[in-house]
UniProtKB/TrEMBL annotation:
It is found in: Cell membrane. It is a multi-pass membrane protein. GO terms for molecular function: transmembrane transporter activity. GO terms for cellular component: plasma membrane. Residues 1-29 are annotated as: Disordered. CDD domains: TM_PBP1_transp_AraH_like. This is Ribose ABC transporter permease protein. Keywords: Cell membrane, Membrane, Transmembrane, Transmembrane helix.
Amino acid sequence: MPAESVTPARNAPAERSRTRDEKDVQAPARPKRTFKDWLADNGALVGLVLVCVVMFIATPAFLTVPNLLNVGVQAAVVAILAFGMTFVIITGGIDLSVGSVAALSSIAAGWLVASAGLPGPVALLAAPLVGLLTGLVSGAAIAYGKLPAFIATLAMLSIARGLALVISGGRPIDMPDAVSALGGDLGPVPVPILVLLVAWAVTAFVLNRTVFGRSLYAIGGNEEAARLAGLPVKRSLAAVYALSGLFAGIAGMVLAGRLASAQPQAASGYELDAIAAVVIGGASLAGGSGKATGTLIGALVLAVIRNGLNLLNVTAFWQQVVIGLVIAAAVGIDVLRSRR
């Protein structure tokens, strides 16, 4: 009996040593992050700071409070469109219809007030609903009809713009005060900036804090693997295009509020700016990556460049050239990042 009681005590240090060794093997030291890693994660923010510094050097009027608020207002519509586009691009898709859907949503809301006699606040709900339904049609065609996203949304681009022209007769529709208020101020802050911040918060919450949002990254990374893992891939794909349409409807109302009218040709070409904002913000067109904050920074980069060029009296034609170069550079960086 005494020998048996002594033996475990003699072996205990060796057992504890083996336990420590096993823990050391199971928990290797985490590699240190390099400056290159940090720059890859925060490249959009660095780019925004550099652009702001350059614009301030070129024209000191840039860093004034009124002008910075103006930049926020200019970025609002594109950023809201881009938040919806972020969901789509994370899944590896594309939505070319958001500009036309924004115009159709505002025109439909204006028509309900001007011709159907509905109260003004109804327009605030009607436009996002029209956008959501339009996006759901595109999403259903892509997810269940197996149409390529490029073709389905390109068709919706034409359909939505055509319906906006048909409903309005090609003429602007005056918006009620409830909508025009979206183009005003709430205290010292313009309302479009407040809508922008709410849209950013909702997008960030959905992507980071919900099962649906996290599943989008899995679908964009490998759709077949996500399906085998039991994720509802088709429903999720239909939902992201519906969300894109919903954000487009909200953006259409913000734009109509700024113009005090719904324009059938409004937001023409905005889909390219929305895609550019998402890519500049660090998302990959191949899918599987993207962040709400990155998209916001990307939209601000575009707005800062346009605002600075306006302050420098650069013509609109050259502004298009500069924006095109920025988009090309962003896509090139995305390609290099993907290869690495």
